[in-house]
Structures are given as C-alpha cells and as structure tokens.
Predict the structure.
Amino acid sequence: MIERISSLMDDYRQTRAMLRFLDANLWIGRPRNPEFASGFDIATLRQRMERYNIYGGLVSHFGALAYGAGWANEELLKAIEGTGLWACITLLPEMFWHEAAGESYLAEMIKRGTRAARVFPATHNFSLRAWCSGALLEALAAHCIPLVLWHTETSWEEIRSLCQAYPQLPIIVEGTPRKILYYSRFYYPLLEQCSNLYLELHNLVAYLGIEDLVSRFGAQRLVFGSFMPVCDPNATLMQVTHARISQEDKMLVARENLAQLIAGVKQP
Amino acid sequence: MIVDAHCHLGSVEAFYVPSTATEEMLALMDSLGIDIAVQMHVAAIMECFEIAYEASVAAYEQSAHRLPFALTYHPRYPEDSLEFIAKSLGRPGGVGIKIHPGQHQTFPEDPAYEAAWRLADKQGVPIITHSWALSDYNPTQRFATPEHFEHYVASFPQVNLVLAHAGGRYEGHLAAVRLAQDYENVYLDLSGDAYSFGLIEWLVAQVGADRILFGSDISWVDPRTHLGRVLDADITLDEKALILGQNACRLFHLSS
C-alpha cells in the first residue's frame, strides 16, 4: 500500500511539474474567513506556488472586495512588482464616469502589470448593463483585458448579455464561492453560443467535467485557477494532470489558454 | 487497496451530469488506481428503494465486487426502505446504511431514525450520513449539522457513524471534529466540495488519520479533486494509507 501510494504521489507530482501551470486565481490580502489558512502576503503566496508547481499567474487582492478597490489595486501592483506575476485588478463603474480619467487609470494599470480585471456587481451594488457599466466594459474590451466574474455576483442571463454585447472581451467565469456544476444547464449552451466565454477550474469539480467540456467545446475554453490560499490547489491540479484528454489539451488548460489571454491584452 | 468511501450511481436530475454509467465510473477508477468504491444509489435517497436495490446488486456483480453499496434509510418510509436495506445486508455487497437528513428534512435525533441504528447495530455495519453546516442558500442543510447526530452516536457507541463531507463547510468542520473528538465511533469522509486550504492536515491533527476516509461524491464531484489533495497533503505516508483505504477496509469489512 505504501509503495503504491508513493508511486501515485510521484506520478502526480512529476506530471504537475511538467505542465508548468499558470494560475488565473491567486490572491493576497485577508479573506473574509481564513478558515484553516494563514499567510496572505505575496512572499507566502510565491512559496506556495513553488510548492505546488505553479509557475506564474494572475493575482487579485481581497481588500478590493471588502474594503476599497482603488487602495487594493495599488497594494496589489506594489506587491507584484518585480515578481513576474500579473495583476487582476478590481474595477468600479465610477472609475469610468469621467471617460478620459477611466481610460488613463486603466492605461496606467496595464503599464504596471495588470492583465485582467474583476468586477463584483452584487457586492458593490451596480449593474453590468451598458447604462451603468458601459464605459468600464468598453474600456476593457478596447484593451482585450479579460473580465473575471464570480457566477454568484451576477446571473447567467447577464453573462450571456455581456458575452454578446462585447464579443471581443474575454469573460472568465469562476465558481466562487459555490461550486459551478449545478449550473451546467446554463454554461453548456453559453459555451456553445459565446466564443469569448471561459470557465475557470477551481470549483468546476463536476465528475468527468473536464473530459466532457473538452470533447464538446475544445480545451481552449478552460482556464486553470486554484483560488489559493483559500482553497487547496491540488483539488484543481489533479483534475488537469490526470484528465483523460490529450497532452496538448492538458497544456492548453494548464497554462497556454491563460498565457494567450495575458498576451492578448493591448498595451496603451 | 485504495477505496473511495463515498460514491453514487443512478440518475441525477437537478443538473446535467456527463455520465452516470457504471462502466465509466470503473474506467475512471482504473485510471486513478482506485480499487473499490462504496456507492450509495441515488434512487434510494429519492424514495425509489426497489430500483436502488436492484441496480446496486447489478453494479456489484458487474464490477466484479468493486462497488459494494449502502442503501438509504428513509425516515418517512421506514418500512419500505428497511425492507431493502435488510435484504442488502443479508447478501454480499451490502456494507452499510446511508441516511440523508437534509434531503429527507428530518433531524438526525428524530425517533424515526432509531430503526436504522438498531439494524446497523444488529448487523455490525456503519451508518453513513450527509453532514453540512448551516447554509444561507440551502436551508435544508440545517437538518444535517453534526451536533444533531450526538443523540444516536451516544446511544449506540458500537455503531460507527461516518459524517460525510466532514461537516461540509467551515462551521460544520468544527462541529464534526468536536463530535469525533468526543465519540470514538465517529468517522469523517472528505467527499463533496470542501476544498479549504489545510483542511486535511487540520482534520488529521484534530481527529487522527485513523478516522478519516477518502471519498469523492461521484457522480456529483470528480474523484481527482480529492485524490490529489490526499496524495500531496503534508501528512505522513502511513496516514495517507489509512485515509486512502485502510480505514475504509476496516470500517466496511472490505477485503481484496
């Protein structure tokens, strides 16, 4: 038994290292409920990334969700400076009420390492419709900056409207804080209809889900994310390392899809 | 043997599931090195006791005994459900009794459950129960918070109870551990979607690895999400061996 477990462990860890994961869902700052985790600074995050063979990715800041987006964005950019990591900042509609100021803010953020943006329309009380968030969304679309959304912060109808209204805007949906598998009857048709929709994996834990999604929509639509340090990254990592899909598809899911989205951001 | 202590066969209607086929489940188990999976057929949770019995027996045979099973006791259909549970425990493959207080909206201390505990005691099999924390989006979880199980756990110290999902969410984990610390007949399984960073290491430190079970929740949740966590956890190899199979073999009287 011990030998067998050792062998499974070695196989898992070697495959994990080989895939050189990029992570779309890394966080610093204190989460509302730390549960069993501790250490929420960038140095600890980087140590953990090394421990789990995660070679890079997008970092977000919990302070943007609970306290202040502008402050947290600044803290985030300072924290990632010189690390090789990219920032996933949080935006609010009022940052774009004065369109030129919004554009200028976004340009500055991109120059300093931003490659994705989050919005929390439920928590921050706003609509994603054009009358409320149009300038923000137009600015993101103009720079092809991926927009990251928790499914619990909006509705699938809203996600569909967004995908259709901004076809050049990559939209990554995450299953935070509830697993996304219960909504498979929403996201399957949406993946079929909206080529700019991506699903992040950390809570996409459906039985045989990766194989089924890849066979129907291609591996290009899935983006690896761990939600570390809130979640154990192994929950997502082994879904990819031991997915019954081609090696090429594993590479896409593990790193290439995110790498392409990051590379696709238009510099100001 | 590596044992997944918490799986399901049967139709799932609440959302789209890629496959519920026995062959698919066995193929995935093969690819991951999982030898045995204890399955609790969905039909018995959903009041279709006959279907669950027949399908479970068929799957056990079809799988060359790799899918032992636990049928569900239903507190609102005690006689109907017990009839098939008793049949299952009288034949190879029947290894336990499942209860689901959340789904059946009956608190675990309700007298309606006594018949299940008595049968488990008589047959020397464990009870596996859904357990969770209070939830703001699923009010039925209030029926399955760990502290509600204390009455029967204390009354039947010789019956082992598996708190599936180890309490489900943070507050539930705390309550599940408290119950396991107070009663040696309480086990915790890792199935479901509780992926908190450090959870496995914390459970092992609090309860000991000899009462924690690897489980997945197939056909809801993919077993790779749990196997990777146990394989890579910061615990000893001996502790991983207990969690991945030795505990389940002892608890369910499984042998190769």
User: Anything to note?
Assistant: The two ends of chain B are 7 Å apart (CA to CA).
